[in-house]
From TrEMBL:
Gene3D superfamilies: Probable inorganic polyphosphate/atp-NAD kinase, domain 1 (3.40.50.10330), Probable inorganic polyphosphate/atp-NAD kinase, domain 2 (2.60.200.30)
Main location: cytoplasm
Organism: Gordonibacter urolithinfaciens
GO molecular function: ATP binding; metal ion binding; NAD binding; NAD+ kinase activity
Major enzyme class: transferase
Cited PANTHER family: NAD KINASE (PTHR20275)
Protein name, per record: NAD kinase
Gene name, Swiss-Prot/TrEMBL: nadK
Entry's transmembrane regions: none
Cofactors named for this entry: a divalent metal cation
Amino acid sequence: MRILIVRNNSNSKAVDASLLLATYLATQGADYTLVDSSDLSCRGDHEGLNAALADGVEMAVVLGGDGTILRTARQIGTSGVPILGVNFGRLGFLANTSDEGVVAVVAAALAGDVVAEQRTNLRIDVVCEGERDRWGDDDLMSDGPDEEGRPDGAPSASGFPCGSDARTFFALNELAVTRGAHGRIIDFGLSISGAHIADMRGDGLVVATATGSTAYALSAGGPLVSPGFVGLVAVPLAPHTLHSRAIVTASNDVVEMDLSHNADTREATLFVDGELLEFERPVRRVYVRRGDTPTVLLRYQREGFYEHAARVFF
């Protein structure tokens, strides 16, 4: 058995726990790979790093907070490798408690005393100004294969290419499209599965999974959604209107943001699970849909989602 250990190397308790866990795994005859979360930043060759991390791994143990789990998921979230989070951060809504010690939690997981939860993730396709819209242009909406990359094809394994030519991104929590550096409101069109919903003005839009419904989307007034839900939640950010509400979609719906009429001085900014996406040109359109392969999170605590939510949020 090979275990991947990802630790928040800026957290001394997580570092100490990783060394303790490594010693325990060695006594159990298990192989392990130890990775610092700072090495999972958006810089570098993510395709190679992704393949190396997931290859031959049967479980990933993440020592840190929710941010460390999100970084790990961005690397291996579509590989099928289950992720066991042990909380050494603040909120730790995605992670298991570390009260019983990291060895006890991992030992329980190795013994099968955990619940595997299939979590919906996002596939995000971005088209910038001056680029052909492979997903929205009428002459390209055919049933045939598109070698240049259609939404129904396989997404980029990296999920966060940062400066590469890829335009497909992965998120476990959410995509947030917000105001840019000028701080002015943005104009955008919102459509779902080809049906135009509204032309909106405001601070932007959050499109979240059920997992992400407890994060930015919740703060923006969105609903708290059970993790088993496989649709999406679209929440306008500070809309300049009196009648805006969050929208909960079906599992096969596609949320589209049209930013083509947005003035250059109101350029939108995109964040994927809190990480900034940088492009050389303004973003023209964004398509968000459910990812093809769910992310597997392991839950050790006997506390269910609603008990956990009641304790944290109410």
